[in-house]
Write a structure and sequence with these properties.
The structure holds two protein chains of two kinds.
Chain A (H helix, E strand, L loop, with lengths): L2 E6 L6 H25 L4 H10 L4 H26 L7 H18 L6 H27 L3 H21 L24 H21 L1 H11 L1 H6 L4 H28 L5 H4 L3 H11 L6 H23 L3 H23 E6 L1
Chain B lengths: L2 H30 L7 H18 L3 H24 L5 H20 L17 H4 L12 H19 L1 H11 L1 H6 L4 H27 L11 H11 L4 H21 L8 H5 L1 H16 L2 H4 L11
The chains are: A mainly alpha, B mainly alpha.
Chain lengths: ~350, ~300
């Protein structure tokens, strides 16, 4: 009887095969998802129409772009961390800390034209500090960072909820749990966001491709021992990749408060899980910083369509998360098909 | 602290510890076979919502319980197949199941938010326990709690004394040697991960059928992740896992008796305690031992070639 055997590829796959390996799992995932939607009595044709409508007008395109930015910045940072083999699953919490930092500047510091740069900086600082805790624990003691970063996501949400409920709450909010609305100087515009995205993407590409630390990080990702032999300190590399990814996740949070909501509300209303979606964006992009631009726009479209589907077809946010989980599997399957081949043996 | 407050604190501790204990015991089995299943949080959520939906649809909490366990089993098996057959990285596959599972749970449960269901019942009442305030907190819980505690001892004994336990440990420590010795390692990994999923599903249905008798979004609230921490804190030992889940249950119970104890702090700050406690406890555990001295299976998380 012929057997299927999975073996590591001896030569890199051709371009055609790569495209095939990328598209095939995605098609499978979309087919499964379409089947589930139909099983749930949701018309796939209508759903596709609604997704298409998000691209139809300038106004909705702008919303898609805005929804993709809090995914894009954290994903950019996760590319660095995941390449280094550091499993930072805490982008969500680091993003919430970024919101806290940006909100503090917006509400309590009067810095005039420097308000927005200060918001970005404090958001980066708090995001990085939140990531530093699991970074140090992993680097110094070897504590599994998947769990600690996740725990801190929950802790961050509770901290944020405490701030909006008590000390920062708008006393004239008619019972709504929110802060005061931000002053105009604290609201970032489209140009500001694009400028920030450009600067930070270039910075990440430079670090990843042209600096020694980027090279060492990649070595670390391929094996702990290899990095030690290459003369790099794993502790420094782990902490550095945590700090960078935490800072970028913080920027994502700043974009939400400054560009989308213009105030701070409870965590559940501020983020539909941007930090988790960013993990999928990083993987869908094959851990490539430029690819993250495309994957974030795509996921931003899904998130924004998710809201529209919610109101028109009664599909809840869970439906978007389900698709995101399936997409992560597709991205991982792509990695597999790139590295392994399936042979038929007689 | 007065006796009444202490008793209700301990009683809440058992209630909060139960789902974490069940999920962590299941995850211990999976991890002993070398498979890290980060999907527990999602599997628990699917168990909770499917369990409740089926319980309402068939008007039978027992049917809901079974459905929750079967859905957990299916997702556990799915994880093993993705890891061993499709060769997807264990962390990525687990995360995908956690995210997709949370989404699926929301979709399944969307029609059931605010619906009140029947409670599973089967509360155990041992008269002798209720007589003294020292033991009354142990009394009157769901049978699932007591079965969970018994299960911890059964797993502990099985891992130590039975040949199945030996096969399981051998698979997680050195799968190639186990294979050479004639152990069907893929079957062991499939069974262990499947049972792990089943127990996570059961843990979810405990929430929706016993504690809340209903379904709402984000019901699991990170309990699956806490369970993964509990496996480490319990040093991959079933009795250790039981004790570690009681510790986390205690931390989760604190906010609910804080008022009685005269502590008036914002509820959000109190609710963050268990998550911070687990981070601190993990740090302490690694400081004392490190993963391998704690007893992590050597092949945990590694893919087989």
């Amino acid at each position: 009887m012929p057997r299927l055997r999975v073996a590591r590829r001896t030569s890199p796959p051709s371009m055609a095969l790569r495209v095939e390996a990328f598209i095939l799992p995605l098609l499978v995932v979309f087919a499964i998802y379409a089947f589930l939607l139909e099983a749930w009595h949701v018309s796939v044709v209508k759903a596709v129409e609604i997704i298409g409508m998000q691209l139809a007008s300038g106004d909705s395109l702008r919303r898609v772009f805005m929804a993709s930015m809090p995914i894009f910045f954290p994903a950019l940072g996760l590319v660095i961390a995941f390449r280094a083999g550091v499993w930072n699953i805490g982008a969500e919490g680091q993003l919430l800390l970024g919101m806290i930092g940006a909100t503090w500047v917006a509400l309590f510091a009067n810095l005039g034209v420097l308000t927005i740069p200060a918001m970005v900086l404090l958001a980066m600082l708090l995001g990085a500090l939140w990531a530093l805790i699991p970074g140090l624990l992993r680097g110094l003691l070897g504590v599994n960072e998947v769990l600690t970063t996740l725990m801190l996501n929950y802790a961050a949400a509770y901290l944020l909820n405490y701030l909006v409920e008590e000390p920062w709450r708008d006393p004239h909010g008619y019972g709504f749990i929110k802060t005061r609305e931000f002053p105009g100087r604290a609201e970032i515009g489209l140009t500001g966001i694009i400028l920030l995205a450009t600067i930070l993407t270039v910075a990440v590409v430079v670090v990843a491709r042209y600096m020694r630390i980027g090279f060492y990080m990649q070595v670390l990702g391929s094996g702990f021992k290899a990095a030690t032999y290459a003369g790099a300190s794993p502790l420094h590399l782990i902490v550095a990749s945590m700090l960078m990814s935490g800072a970028l996740a913080g920027v994502g949070g700043m974009i939400v408060v400054s560009g989308i909501t213009g105030m701070l509300m409870e965590a559940g209303r501020m983020s539909p899980g941007y930090g988790y979606t960013a993990i999928i964006a990083a993987w869908l992009a094959g851990l490539n910083p430029i690819g993250v631009i495309l994957s974030s726009l795509f996921l931003g479209l899904l998130v924004e369509s998710g809201f529209a589907l919610q109101s028109s077809l009664g599909l809840n946010v869970g439906a978007t998360m389900l698709l995101e989980g399936l997409l992560l599997l597709a991205a991982a399957a792509y990695r597999f098909m790139e590295e392994y081949e399936v042979r038929v043996e007689p | 602290m007065n006796a009444e407050a202490m008793s209700s604190l301990l009683s809440y501790m058992l209630i909060y510890a139960t789902p974490i204990m069940l999920a962590a015991l299941g995850e211990t089995l999976a991890e002993k076979s070398g498979i890290l299943n980060l999907g527990i949080e999602g599997i628990m959520a699917v168990g909770a919502s499917t369990g409740f939906a089926v319980s309402v649809a068939l008007n039978s909490p027992m049917a809901g319980l079974v459905a929750a366990m079967l859905s957990g089993l299916a997702l556990g098996v799915l994880h093993e197949l993705l890891v061993d057959k499709v060769r997807i990285n264990q962390i990525v596959s687990g995360l995908a199941i956690a995210i997709a599972g949370a989404g699926l749970a929301d979709v399944v449960g969307s029609g059931y938010v605010g619906v009140s269901g029947k409670s599973l019942g089967y509360r155990v009442n041992i008269g002798i326990l209720s007589r003294s305030p020292l033991t009354s907190w142990l009394n009157g819980h769901s049978i699932i709690t007591y079965l969970g505690i018994i299960l911890a001892f059964i797993i502990w004994a099985a891992l130590r004394m039975s040949s199945y336990g030996l096969f399981l440990k051998a698979t997680g420590e050195n799968p190639y040697a186990a294979k050479a010795a004639g152990v069907n390692i893929y079957r062991v990994r499939l069974l262990a991960t499947g049972i792990g999923g089943l127990l996570a599903g059961l843990a979810g249905s405990y929430l929706s059928l016993v504690v809340y008798s209903g379904w709402f979004d984000n019901m699991t609230a990170g309990r699956g992740w806490l369970a993964l921490g509990v496996v480490i804190l319990g040093a991959w030992n079933a009795i250790g896992v039981l004790l570690a889940s009681l510790f986390v249950g205690y931390m989760m119970a604190l906010p609910y008796v804080a008022g009685k104890l005269g502590i008036h702090v914002n509820a959000n700050l109190l609710q963050s305690i268990p998550y911070i406690a687990v981070v601190v406890a993990l740090a302490a555990a690694y400081m004392l031992g490190g993963e391998h001295r704690l007893g992590a299976p050597s092949y945990l998380g590694r893919s087989l070639d």
